[in-house]
Each structure stands twice: as C-alpha cells, then as structure tokens.
TrEMBL record:
Entry protein name: Aminotransferase
Family label: Belongs to the class-I pyridoxal-phosphate-dependent aminotransferase family.
GO molecular function, one term: transaminase activity
Keyword Transferase found: yes
CDD domains per UniProt: AAT_like
Pfam families the UniProt entry points to: Aminotran_1_2 (PF00155)
Cofactor requirements of the protein: pyridoxal 5'-phosphate
Gene3D superfamilies (alphabetical): Aspartate Aminotransferase, domain 1, Type I PLP-dependent aspartate aminotransferase-like (Major domain)
EC number of this enzyme: 2.6.1.-
Alphabetical UniProt keywords: Aminotransferase, Pyridoxal phosphate, Transferase
Length: 397
C-alpha cells in the first residue's frame, strides 16, 4: 500500500506541533522541571467537580442537544454579559464545543473557501495555521514585534490585507507572549476593518487572565459585533482542561451554519462536563479571582528573576506565559531549549514553535508552583553562567 498516495495531501503537508518533542524527552527524565505545559496546575475547584459527579449519580449520561444544554448556554450568556458586557442570545448565538480548539476549527471551516486567506498574528498558538490549511485556506502569518510588546498594530494589518483576505485571527491575550490588546489597540484594528467584509475570529480563552487591567473583546467595539466570532472556554479560567469544554458565540446566521459542522462531526459536547460547566459559570467567579491572584504573583516573580539573570523580558499583561529574549546567549531558540533541558533538566519551549517572529525567544509558563519556578530560575542562572564561561574560553582561544 502506498499510503502517501492514499492519504490527503493537505493533511500530509501539515507539520506536527513543535511543542511535543520537548515533553517526550522530559517524560524520561528524573527531577526535571517543566515550564512548558500551557495548563493550570490547579485542580478543578471541588464544587465544579462535585456537580459533574452529581450528574453521573443522577444518571445524566445521554446526549444533550447539539448546541449544548440550554441551561449551560443560558449561564454562558449571563456570564459573558456579567464579566465582559457581551450580549448573546443563548438559543441562537452560542454553541458549546469540545474545548476552545474545536471552536476555532469550526469557525475556520465555516468561513473559509479554497484559496481564501486568513491573517494570523504570530507568535501565537500553534493550531491556527494548520487548521486554516486543513480548511482549504491560506495562512498569512503576520509577525508582531517585540518593540510593540507583540501587539497587532494597524500598520501591520493594513499591509497584510489583500482581496483574498477572508478572516483575521485575533489571539489575545496571547499564547506564547502574554501580550494583550487594550481597548485603544482594538479600536485601531477596527478602523482598518471597517468597510471590508473581513471576519474576526477572536480567541479569548485567556480573557480572565489579565493583570492590572480588564479584558476587552473586539466584539465590544462599535461595528465589530456583527463581524466577530468569539471563542472561549473553561480550560484556563476554571482549570478544566481535561473536561474539554469550550464555546463559540457570534452572529446567528453564522452560528446556524457552524452548528451543522458540530452536529455531524461531534454530535454534542460531553454531558458530564456540561453539567460541571453550569456550576462553573454560575458559582465560579471567586475561583477565577483566586487563581488569577496566584498567577499574578508568579508572573511578577518570574519576570523579575529573568531580568536579574540577564534575560530581557517585557512585562506580559495576560495569560500565564513570559517570553524572554535569549539572543544575547548566541544560541538559537531551539539550541537554548535543548541544551537547557539536557544540562539542567528544565523544559521551556522554543519561540520558533509558535511561528515566525519567535526566533530568539523562549516561552516559560508560570502555571506551576512557586517552588518550581524558583528552582528553574536557579538552574537557568547556572546554565547561563556556565555558557558564558565556555564562550569566554572559546573567544580566548
């Protein structure tokens, strides 16, 4: 069997995630520390777990409606209005998905025709480009700059737009950089988009994890609501990664078509997880505040520590990542990460895993204990000291 001929050429051309290989090595190491996994280290709060358990005890194990439990969609609508002043009709504008990633996939497949271009600011989460390609579209990777704190500027966006542009992915707060877009930034982007038919896919999975500011959705900006598909979920805000709970909100005409994709591909999101999510939406605000406060302390500690050992790092205002500049070491991002892992048993992720513009940077995740962060900084300081000594000896020879 010639499997290369049998399989879809489009799928074969998509490269696997550049993140996973570090974890494959890490699994074989003892006493290793990971600042790599983009996952909360908190356990899902007990009252949310209890709601899932209770749903099992009550025998609620059947399919729900394709769009998700009406009760859950009502709570999502209430939550979005309460927290972000976003108003969506639970019956026609919200679909519950298997994580935010499914929501991104559905949005892209719902919008993209073969040959359409999708603008994707990078560095950013690894799935946008491959999912665009698998939908038949063309990813247009738009490099944001460290001097702009990795925000998308209107000047960059204007240059990327062509007659083939169908959509803009807006991945803020950002993974891997921790960058945010404030209201003034979004207003400038909105001004570029007015008068076009370009849709926005706004991935707001980290919307609850902003520090010293309140998240604003581009759907809040005048004239943007009708052209924006909002993707969100429970993984980061409520420490519910394994429950696989997300949701998509948008214009009802688009949601109607998007629901067909979800219906035929998935049927419905997991029932137990949906009942747990109802509790998260209804009574989880305090959990969000508690976890965010803890992340904030780790964020400030890690940024200060990286700067102290000689790695420049802008202060990220969102998500739970920092994105230090390692160009002064003379190593590429991949070399830095591989050597740091092998020599000091600490996993961080190469900036190149997140697209062009990531070279010269690494992603460090602070969704881990303060003890591990402190030890990782000690080991990084040791790594940099030894590296500089070796480089000095080589220069002397």
């Amino acid at each position: 069997m010639n499997y290369q001929q049998i399989m879809s050429q489009r799928i074969q051309e998509v490269q696997p995630s550049g993140i996973r290989r570090f974890f494959d090595i890490l699994e074989e190491m003892k006493d290793a520390i990971s600042l790599g996994v983009g996952e909360p280290d908190f356990v899902t709060p007990w009252h949310i777990r209890d709601a899932g358990i209770y749903s099992l005890e009550k025998g609620r194990t059947r399919y729900t409606s394709n769009a998700g439990l009406a009760e859950l969609r009502r709570e999502i609508a209430s939550y979005l209005e309460r927290r972000f002043d976003l108003k969506y009709d639970f019956a026609s504008q919200i679909v519950v998905t298997v994580g935010g990633s499914e929501g991104i996939d559905l949005a892209l497949r719902c919008l993209v025709n073969p040959g359409d271009e999708v603008i994707i600011p990078v560095p950013s989460f690894v799935c946008y480009g491959p999912l665009t390609s698998m939908a038949g579209g063309t990813p247009v990777l738009l490099e944001t700059r460290a001097e702009d704190e990795f925000r998308l500027t209107p000047e960059l966006l204007k240059k990327a737009i062509t007659p083939k542009t169908k959509a803009l992915v807006l991945p803020f707060p950002n993974n891997p950089t921790g960058a945010v877009m404030e209201r003034s930034d979004l207003e400038a982007i909105a001004e570029v988009l007015r008068g076009t038919d370009i849709m926005v896919i706004s991935d707001e999975i980290y919307s609850e994890l902003t520090y010293g500011m309140h998240h604003t959705s581009i759907a809040n900006i005048p004239d943007m609501y009708e052209r924006t598909i909002v993707i969100n979920g429970f993984s980061k805000s409520h420490a519910m990664t394994g429950w696989r709970m997300g949701y998509v909100c948008g214009p009802k005409e688009i949601i109607k078509q998007l629901l067909k994709l979800h219906q035929f591909g998935i049927m419905s999101a997991p029932t137990v997880s949906q009942y747990a999510a109802v509790e998260a939406m209804r009574n989880g605000d305090r959990d969000i505040e508690r976890m965010r406060d803890e992340y904030d302390g780790r964020r400030r500690y890690l940024v200060e520590g990286l700067r102290r050992i000689g790695l420049p790092c802008f202060e990220p205002k969102g998500a739970f990542y920092v994105f230090p500049d390692i160009r002064s070491t003379g190593l590429s991002s991949d070399e830095f990460c591989e050597r740091f892992l092998m020599e000091e048993k600490v996993a961080v992720i190469s900036g190149t895993a997140f697209g062009p513009g990531g070279e010269g940077f690494i992603r460090c995740c602070y969704a881990t204990s303060m003890k591990d962060i402190a030890e990782a900084l000690t080991r990084m300081d040791n790594f940099l000291t030894n590296l500089r000594k070796k480089q000095a000896r080589s220069a002397g020879n």
